[in-house]
Recover the amino acids of this structure.
C-alpha cells in the first residue's frame, strides 16, 4: 500500500514558442530501498513536449521533469520479492510497478499542471492507465 509521495525537484523548460502537437511520458525507477516491510522507490517523471513534425521528425519544444520518492508498506514477502527483483534485474514485480506508474501518472500530472501552465504548456496528463505485461526479454513493457 502506497503511503506517501515526496517530490524533491521540479524543472521545466520551454525552448521555443512553437505549438505543441504531442507529449511523450517516461517514468524511470532510479533506485529501490527495502527495510523490513517498507519500500522506497526513487523516480524521475519526464513529460517531453513536441512541436509539429518537420521533415518527418518531431522537434522537442520543452520538457517537464519531476524527481521524488514513493514510499509503501508491503507484506514482508512482497517487500522481499520487490528487493530481489530490483537487485537481480533492476526491475519491479509487474503488479507493483503498474501500481507505482499509475499513481505517479496521476500525482505528477496534478503536481506538474501549475508548473506546465506557468511556461505555456498544457497539463502533463497521460490519458490512459498503464497496463504492464512481460516483454520478450522478461522486462515490463
Amino acid at each position: 500500500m502506497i503511503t506517501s509521495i515526496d517530490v524533491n525537484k521540479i524543472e521545466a523548460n520551454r525552448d521555443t514558442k512553437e505549438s505543441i502537437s504531442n507529449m511523450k511520458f517516461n517514468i524511470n525507477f532510479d533506485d529501490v530501498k527495502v527495510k523490513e516491510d517498507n519500500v522506497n522507490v526513487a523516480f524521475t517523471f519526464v513529460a517531453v513536449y513536441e512541436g509539429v513534425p518537420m521533415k518527418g521528425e518531431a522537434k522537442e519544444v520543452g520538457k517537464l521533469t519531476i524527481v521524488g520518492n514513493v514510499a509503501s508498506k508491503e507484506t514482508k514477502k512482497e517487500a522481499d520479492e520487490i528487493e530481489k527483483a530490483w537487485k537481480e534485474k533492476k526491475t519491479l514485480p509487474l503488479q507493483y510497478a503498474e501500481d507505482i506508474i499509475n499513481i505517479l501518472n496521476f500525482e505528477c500530472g496534478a503536481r506538474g499542471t501549475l508548473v506546465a501552465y506557468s511556461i505555456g504548456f498544457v497539463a502533463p496528463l497521460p490519458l490512459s492507465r498503464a497496463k504492464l505485461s512481460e516483454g520478450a526479454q522478461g522486462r515490463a513493457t
In short: The radius of gyration is 17 Å. The mean pLDDT is 91. The first strand starts at residue 2 and ends at 14. Residues 2-118 form one domain.
